[in-house]
Every structure is written in structure tokens, then in C-alpha cells.
């Protein structure tokens, strides 16, 4: 995590905030599109899994100080991927499934997010290294 924090700190203050804002607007628009196309909890699962893959890829491609100075990481990492993915919606949807009596569904939903998200983040990093 310290590498991610260091990467986010590499772009100058206001410049980085503007880039996160712009990337966040794009991520939010994508998220809304997925929400319109898929019913919960599938929309959240989809964006979280895709976000894990993309963030892993971006991290490998952009954790180079020369590229970070341009602020691309700020726009695409915390901005785009941060707005696209959501942990709070994951939690809320799991609680809703449990409240509706679908404890197995909630457990499967949470397990799928972690058991698929971690390998996808690792795959993203591997793809990022392979593209170099």
C-alpha cells in the first residue's frame, strides 16, 4: 500500500486533485452505465472485478516516477478506478441479501468478490509487466 500512497503523492497537490476529479467523473459515469445495464448485486460485482484488474494493470504500468509526474496515475488509479469500484455498495448489497433471507447468496457474493478480485488484480499486474 505504501507504493500506492507514494504514487498518489507524486503529482503536485492541486494538480493531482484536479486529475483525480476528472478521472473520478469518468469512473462515476462508467459506474452509472453498468448500474443501468445490470441489476444489483451483479453491477457492483462486475465493476469491482473489472476495477481490480484495471487497477493492477495501471499500477504496474504507471509506478514509474517518470510517468507519475504527469499525474496519469492520479487520474486513472484513485480517480477512475476509485470512482468505478465501491466497497460500501458491496457491503450494503450483502446486507440486503442477508435481510432478504439469502445468507448463502450473500456469502457467495462476498466470496466471489474476494476470490475473483484478488487473482484479477494479480493478473492485471502481470499483464502490466508483460506490456512493457
Structure description:
The longest helix is centred in the last third of the chain and has 29 residues, at 103-131. Helix 2 packs antiparallel against helix 3, helix 3 (42-62) packs parallel to helix 7 and helix 6 runs antiparallel to helix 7 (103-131). By secondary structure, the chain is mainly alpha-helical. The radius of gyration is 16 Å and the shape is globular. The chain has seven helices and no strands.
Give, in order, the helices and strands. HHHHHHH
Uncertain segments are: none
Dominant shape = globular
Q: Proportion of β residues?
A: under 5%
Instruction: Note the total helix count.
Output: 7
What integer value in Å does the Rg equal? Answer: 16 Å
**Residues in helices, as a percent range:** over 70%
Write the layout of secondary structure elements.
Blueprint: H1 2-10, H2 13-37, H3 42-62, H4 65-68, H5 72-84, H6 87-99, H7 103-131
Helix pairs in contact: 2-3, 2-5, 3-5, 3-7, 6-7
Give a short synopsis of this structure:
This protein is mainly alpha-helical and 132 residues long. It is built from seven helices and no strands.
Keyphrases for this structure?
globular; 7 helices; mainly alpha; 132 residues; 0% strand
Amino acid at each position: 500500500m505504501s507504493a500506492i500512497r507514494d504514487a498518489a503523492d507524486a503529482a503536485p497537490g492541486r494538480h493531482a486533485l484536479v486529475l483525480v476529479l476528472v478521472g473520478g467523473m469518468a469512473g462515476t459515469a462508467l459506474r452509472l452505465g453498468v448500474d443501468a445495464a445490470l441489476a444489483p448485486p451483479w453491477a457492483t460485482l462486475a465493476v469491482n472485478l473489472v476495477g481490480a484488474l484495471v487497477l493492477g494493470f495501471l499500477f504496474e504500468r504507471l509506478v514509474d516516477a517518470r510517468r507519475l509526474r504527469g499525474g496519469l496515475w492520479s487520474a486513472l488509479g484513485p480517480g477512475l478506478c476509485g470512482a468505478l469500484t465501491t466497497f460500501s455498495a458491496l457491503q450494503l448489497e450483502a446486507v440486503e441479501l442477508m435481510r432478504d433471507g439469502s445468507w448463502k447468496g450473500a456469502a457467495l457474493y462476498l466470496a466471489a468478490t474476494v476470490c475473483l478480485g484478488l487473482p484479477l488484480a494479480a493478473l492485471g499486474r502481470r499483464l502490466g509487466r508483460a506490456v512493457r
